[in-house]
Structure formats: structure tokens, C-alpha cells
Amino acid sequence: MQRHTMALLFFLTALVPSCSGMFADWQSVDSGERQVVWRSVDPMGSFSLNENTNISANYISLKSYGGVLYSGWHENGMYHIRIFNGNDDFPMWQTLPNLGLAGDTNGVMEIHDGRIYVLYFAAGDLRCQRLKSDQSGWEDITPGGGIDYGATPQEQLTLVSYAGKLYALWKEAPPGFIRMKRYDGGDVWTGGAGVEDVNGIQDTVATSYGLHATIHNGLLFASYGMVSAPAPHTVLRVRAYNGAGWVTVGGNIAINNTSSDFAQLCTITSYNNSLYMLWREYNNFIPHDGLWAIRYNGLAWQRMDGKTPLTRDGLRYFGSNDTSVNNTMSDARMNALAVVNGRLVAAWREYTGTGPNQLRCALFSGDEGSPYWFFIDGGMTNGLNFNPLQSVDEVYAVSHDSKIYIGFTEWDISLNFHVKVGY
Fold it and tell me: DSSP labels for 81-122?
């Protein structure tokens, strides 16, 4: 397999004319002065990133680091990583060595201190490997017994670089606590006192679902769903870590739009000196709610979706003007947040009740005025799908080179990993 040094990749990126100047007027996109232009950045703009388009890609991610855009995903028992060359020349993505995952179907990537790390399951153990500095292969940095605390690790896996250290977070069952360990070099991972308490990172002993982490104002924030009365309903919690311990953010409150609904799939990010969270919520296992947005300003939670409990549309595209309490017209999920050129962007997949799932994208207005969000995916029913006749599954968004990149999988015989850029 051909190897490419990072120096060469930076050189190639530097040769590419930047489109960042085209983003200067993103501040006025909501005024209608310009529309966001979208194009595919798959190989040759017509194929997916998959190594084999007949085998599904999943656990996708995009990472921007040091001026380079990385893509990562699981396919056929391996974790694949590619680097975008920054232009339309073929091949658009340079290949790095694959990482064998012992047949498991998961994996998550993070870039820490200039190196690529992958956290994954293997034979019931939680393991981590790092790409060698010369990019010739991978080195296992997992202790003999694995990284976990002895129970079975479960999704979501999360790797995050915080305050000069690499942290792994995951759900471990039974009983379903969210655990965390810090990488201290070699094959040493530290947990316990100073990293988490006996119940995991939670403030309450309860089974947790989903996990997302971000850095905000010098702290590590984690959001997750948690089973609450009346069971099995789930509520959302946000906790913050300062390097020594965890505290609950915004008081010990349920953030849900409706307390008796199921809230999950939460995404958080730092924007404009506040913490923003986007989540999906539904009732009685019947998807009918859209995505809800909230902001924590350091003192309290504030609704940022322009909706009330009686207008259950949230950020959905389909039926966005329907104010009925029991709107069952569409289902939004697999949400993602990114900040590009000082603007907050949300992306998600949406099912309208008929036809395939569509890829949607909306921009936050920047204040509490109406509308809170407006669509920048062309305003068409088909959204941003590569093929509007195929369904979107996973969605991932990242800011890179002053553009918004959205990675998504779309079903065509198998799940194919596509990337689109908006500028």
C-alpha cells in the first residue's frame, strides 16, 4: 500500500486555492443575499469512500486537524482512514493503512498530539491503537486486560483530546454506567479517583444511553440519556469535567422538552461562548418529534428551537408549519452540530413517513428571534442526498477550511460513505 507523509499532504493542501473567502458573507446567508453551494467530494464526485461499495460502511467520522481533513469508518472488519487532498484531483482521498478490528463492527477515531488513535471493541475488550509516526502501520497501546473496568463495553464509544491528554469514554454494562479513562503513555490508562466516581460519570445511579463529548470554556462536557421515572422513559443530562472531577451542569434537571417522552441521540458543541445541545425526542416509541435545541449560558438552560411543548416540530423540514400536538408526519434523528465561520450548523436525517430518509441541513440565526433556524440544503424535499431515491443513515458534520463538510452513509445495495461540502 502506498504511503504518504504528512509533509507531502500539507504541501498538497497548500497548493490548493482556498475557497475560504467565499464564506465571508455567511454572516448574511439568512438575509437571502446568497445561497450555500454544495458539491460532492467523494472520489471523482461519483463514488463513495468505501473500499468495496458492496460492503456497508458504518461508524463514520470526519476530523479536521492541522489543516488536513480526515475521514474514518468501519468496513468489513477493518477501520479505514483517508485524507482529503483538498481539491478535485483523483484520487481525492489518500489512503492510510487499515486497522484490523478482529471482526468487530465498531470503532471511533480521534487525533491527539498529531497522531491518529482508534478506540474499538475486540473479543469483549475495549482496545485502542495508534498509527505509527511513519504511518507504516498501527501499534497497540492497550494494557493486557483491556481499557474497560471488567464489564462488557457498549456504544457509544468516544475519544476526546482534552487539556493535553487523551480520554476514552464509553458505556459499560451491566449496569450501564458511562466510564472514562485517561491515556498516560505506553499502555497505561488511568481511571478511578480523579477521573470518575464509583457510578461512572453520572450524578445518579441509572442506566445510560448515548454519549457525546465536547470541549467548552476549558472544561470537558459530556451529554447522555438516562433512564428515569416513569421507566423506561429517558431524560438528558450534561456533566462537566475539570481534570479532577465531574459536576452536573445547569442543576439536576431533566432537559427534555416533554418530561414523559424518550430523549436520546444528543449532540453538544461550544458556540458563541455558550454550550448548545441538539437532541431527538419521541413518545411511546412512536417517532413524531423533531430535533430540539437548547443553550446553556453558564447560569441556566434556554430554548433555542423557537418551539413550545405544543408545537412538536422542532427543527424538522417536513411539516415545519404544523403546530398540532400529535404531529406524526416525520421523524428526525442522527443529528450533528458544527461551527463554521462563526455560524452554528445542524445536520440530520429525516423520514417523512413515505420514501427514503433525506439529509437535512439548517443554520442557526444567532439569536432568539424568529426564525431560530433556516434551511441551507437547497430548500428542496430531497435535501442533500447523493441519490434522492436512497435512504440516508449516519450523519457527521465538521468545519474545515472555512467550509462545512457533512459525511453520511446512504443505502445503495449496501451503506456507502459519502461526503458533501457547503460553501
Answer: EEEE-SSSSSSSEEEPPPEE-TT----EEEEETTEEEEEEEE
Least Cα distance to 300 among 221, 238, 213, 380 occurs for 238
Q: Outline where DSSP puts E strands in 165-319.
A: 165-173, 177-183, 189-190, 208-216, 219-227, 234-241, 246-248, 262-271, 274-282, 291-296, 301-303
420 burial class (0-12, 13-18, 19+ CB within 10 angstroms)? buried
Contact 174, 165 (CB under 8 A): no
* Pairing outcome for strands 291-296 and 262-271: unpaired
Task: Please report which residue ranges of 157-285 form alpha helices under DSSP H.
Answer: none
pLDDT at 257 over 70: no
Helix, coil or strand: residue 31: helix
Distance CA(298)–CA(276), nearest Å, equals 11
Burial 76-97 (b: 16+ CB within 10 A, else e): bebbbbbbbbbeeeeebbbbbb
Give whole-number Cα distances, 330 to 63, 170, 359, in Å: 30, 30, 13
Question: Residue 19: which of 417, 365, 386, 405 has the closest Cα?
Answer: 405
Kindly state the helix (H) or strand (E) to which residue 80 belongs, with its residue range.
strand 78-84
* Candidate ranges 1-10, 89-98, 101-110, 289-298; pick with highest mean pLDDT: 89-98
Task: Please check the confidence at residue 123 and state whether its pLDDT lies above 50.
Answer: yes
CA angle 175, 181, 186 (to 5 degrees): 140
Q: Which three cell numbers stand for residue 252?
A: 439536576
Beta-carbon count within 10 A of 309 CB: 11
List residues bridging with 80 in a β-sheet: 73
d(CA 107, CA 295): 30
Q: pLDDT tens across 379-409, in order?
A: 677 789 999 899 999 999 999 999 999 999 9
Confirm if 225 and 263 have CB atoms less than 8 A apart: yes
First to last CA, the chain: 33
Residue 355: left if φ>0, alpha if ψ -120 to 50, beta else—which one? left
Distances (CA, A) of 149 to 126, 241, 295: 9, 19, 33
CB 280 within 8 A of CB 291: yes
Give the 3-state secondary structure of residue 10.
helix
Query: 457527521: which residue's cell?
Result: 396
- Cell 416509541 sits on residue: 285
Which has the closest alpha carbon to 157: 104, 199, 217? 104
Nearest to 32 by CA among 306, 399, 292, 371: 371
User: What are the pLDDT digits (tens) for 239-248?
Assistant: 999 988 888 8
